[in-house]
């Protein structure tokens, strides 16, 4: 008797993850070689912690890996099992992320002005909104479940979320492996939550992003052999923001509206504090400086690796709370485990800072 294998949703998610990870592992050395030959390197300066030129177009490998994995899933029929509205949304997020990648890559190659980047980012976000990647309502608990339509505010709210998240990821990309690891952890949490909340389109994108981001760490973790650049940060930031919109913010659940903010709390809070501190001092919110969390930890005498691991554990900790808010089974157990990990890493940070201070 002949048996015909029919792939399930979970099969397509696994394929997206594995293909993306393997493609980025294969393509990153190729991109590095091209970057060295073409001279597209990130040179040291007072704001940066690396001391030698490093190729800064690694985002090309992430872009190729994630998009190819999604195209392979589409070729296998993985998009065909999605509801019609989710099929359109997944294309909207993917195309929008590709456009953001090219904006970032152009900045890597030609150093675009901040105002020009912001205008182009807003235009692309408007296109994504038009394609269905939009925040149409806010969900609040009031005598049950109440959805408030935001009407004409949908466009500006969506643009602020998409553009803000893209730049939040780009701003934390200041240490070896930091942005890639944070995005990888956040993508895994979004994958789990999206699957649990029956949002297969969002889960598919999250799976591909998780594979690409975690695979890239093979070359990007300290000491980094290659940087993702603005292209990679923009691409991953938009994918995370898009998954938050189509997979979580649209879910009719009391807690769903806060899930993207919980999962991405670390880059969001870091960016918000930096912007506020700059404005309070009468400076431009877009003026580069060393106010970010990773800069402050380095100034306190914490090593690059420990700083990155601390922010990883912080990201995993807030992500565990998202599991609880989504109603994921045994979510509290994951919170306890993540809390223990964060406590241990925090103790290591305190211990290293104390040793550093005593040696002065």
Structure description:
The chain is mainly alpha-helical and 360 residues long. It has a domain of 247 residues. 69% of the residues lie in helices and 4% in strands. The chain contains 13 helices and 4 strands. Strand 3 and strand 4 form a beta hairpin. The radius of gyration is 20 Å and the shape is globular. It is a multi-pass membrane protein. One of its GO terms (cellular component) is plasma membrane. One of its GO terms (biological process) is lipopolysaccharide biosynthetic process.
SSE layout:
Elements: H1 9-38, E1 41-42, E2 54-55, H2 59-75, H3 84-110, H4 114-130, E3 137-141, E4 145-149, H5 154-171, H6 178-196, H7 200-220, H8 229-249, H9 259-263, H10 265-280, H11 293-299, H12 304-326, H13 331-358
Order of helices and strands: HEEHHHEEHHHHHHHHH
Termini gap: 77 Å
Query: Strand-residue fraction?
Result: under 5%
Low-confidence runs of at least 5 consecutive residues? 1-5
Number of strands: 4
As a percent range, the share of helical residues equals 55-70%
Question: Average pLDDT value?
Answer: 89
Compute the CA-based radius of gyration: 20 Å
Judging from the principal axes of the Cα atoms, what is the shape?
globular
Strand order of the largest sheet: 1-2
Main beta-sheet strand count, sense and barrel state: 2 strands, antiparallel
Query: How many H/I helical runs?
Result: 13
Which secondary-structure class do the elements indicate? mainly alpha
């Amino acid at each position: 008797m002949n048996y015909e294998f029919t792939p399930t949703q979970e099969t397509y998610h696994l394929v997206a993850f594995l293909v993306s990870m393997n493609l980025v592992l294969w393509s990153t050395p190729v991109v590095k070689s091209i970057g060295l030959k073409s001279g597209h390197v990130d040179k040291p300066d007072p704001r940066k912690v690396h001391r030698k030129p490093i190729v800064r177009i690694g985002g090309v490998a992430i872009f190729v890996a994630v998009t190819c994995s999604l195209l392979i899933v589409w070729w296998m029929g993985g998009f065909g099992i999605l509801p019609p509205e989710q099929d359109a949304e997944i294309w909207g997020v993917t195309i929008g992320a590709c456009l953001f990648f090219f904006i970032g890559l152009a900045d890597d190659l030609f150093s675009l002005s901040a105002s020009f980047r912001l205008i182009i980012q807003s235009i692309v976000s408007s296109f994504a909104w038009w394609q269905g990647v939009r925040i149409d309502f806010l969900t609040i608990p009031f005598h049950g479940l109440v959805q408030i339509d935001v009407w004409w505010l949908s466009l500006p709210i969506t643009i602020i979320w998409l553009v803000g998240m893209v730049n939040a990821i780009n701003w934390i990309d200041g240490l070896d492996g930091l942005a890639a690891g944070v995005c990888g952890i956040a993508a895994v949490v979004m994958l789990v939550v999206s699957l649990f909340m029956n949002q297969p389109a969002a889960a598919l994108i999250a799976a591909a992003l998780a594979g690409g981001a975690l695979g890239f760490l093979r070359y990007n973790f300290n000491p980094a052999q290659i940087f993702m650049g603005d292209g990679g940060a923009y691409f991953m930031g938009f994918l995370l923001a898009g998954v938050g919109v189509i997979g979580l913010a649209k879910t009719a659940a009391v807690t769903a509206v806060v899930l993207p903010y919980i999962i991405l709390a670390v880059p969001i809070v870091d960016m918000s504090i930096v912007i506020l501190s700059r404005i309070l001092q009468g400076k431009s919110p877009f003026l580069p400086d060393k106010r970010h969390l990773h800069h402050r930890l380095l100034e306190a005498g914490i090593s690059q690796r420990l700083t990155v691991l601390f922010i990883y554990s912080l990201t995993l900790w807030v992500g565990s709370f998202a599991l609880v808010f989504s109603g994921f089974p045994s979510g509290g157990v994951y919170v306890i485990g993540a809390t223990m990990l964060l406590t241990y890493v925090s103790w290591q940070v305190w211990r290293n800072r104390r040793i550093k201070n005593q040696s002065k």
